[in-house]
Amino acid sequence: GIEGLLATLVIGQWLLALVALVMLRDVLFSEARLAAPLQLARYSAPYYLNGFVRFGTMQADQLLVGVALLPEQLATYYVIRQLFDFLVMYVDTLVDSFLPRLSELRVAGRDRVNQAFRWTSRFLAVAVIPLCCIVASLSYPLLEVYGGAKYMSANMPLATLALAALFYTSYSYYGAHVYALGRPVEHLGQESVGSLLNVGLGLLLMTGLGIQGFALARLLSLLGATLFSAHLLRRSYPVRLDRQALGRVVWTVLVGCAVIVGGQLLFYRLWLTPVYGLLGGVVFVLLYSRYLRDEDVALFESGLPAPLYRVTIQPLVRLRNRIWGEKGYPCDRVR
Prior knowledge:
disordered C terminus; 15 helices
């Protein structure tokens, strides 16, 4: 029962703590000279505060909706928030995998950091933008399946939160660089801006817009936090996105989503939505394969597990070669 669940959670956390101690044994028991305790605490204080401040960035809306919304609206917001949290979990899995490498690149110089930023941003664009846009396009049938007919009126807030997950990706990606390459106080400043924007916009928009106001506040706050994080990072590292590659992903995804939304508007049946989703996915794959370059293939090969690469990217390369002809772009990936 519930006692067993709680016991499992506690035991699991203790086991993770023991594993962490074993992994850190070389650091904990080394003879390295430690910094003065007061100096170390002063430097690291922003890290300690960061967890509390991040609550405002990611969780404050749940506190505000409890005050501002009616009980039936709370249930609706919970449903769409759960779907948003699934996207956040997916994004965190991708971004967190870059952190160890970012710490290593700090000593390699600005050029390596800039090049790594450009390449990994291309990887994230392909991995995140299609998924978030598909969720936004299928928000109406997703709510019918996930929550039932009484929640289907929240399709626009869900679509807004799915698009907000795009800005959460950019915010997390820039934030990971600020965390790994900058000072602790800069990372705290980044989280503070996101927190203030989320709380302030939530209070401002919830009165007239209700659930849609909270969703819109989340989107705008993450956009503002992204811009501030980019400003912090560019003060030390003049990083730039590959706008051309990003534009290719965006327009091909928009065409695929237009097929999905158009099919639902013309003739909506729940059992037909997988067909519309499949058609939109096929359109996206066909169009995007036209722009798939050899360096993109090399990037995916280095970043994906071999089995996943074989079932996703290799068929796409064969499709590109068959339909559009083989592209001999030089591979400029730094190994």
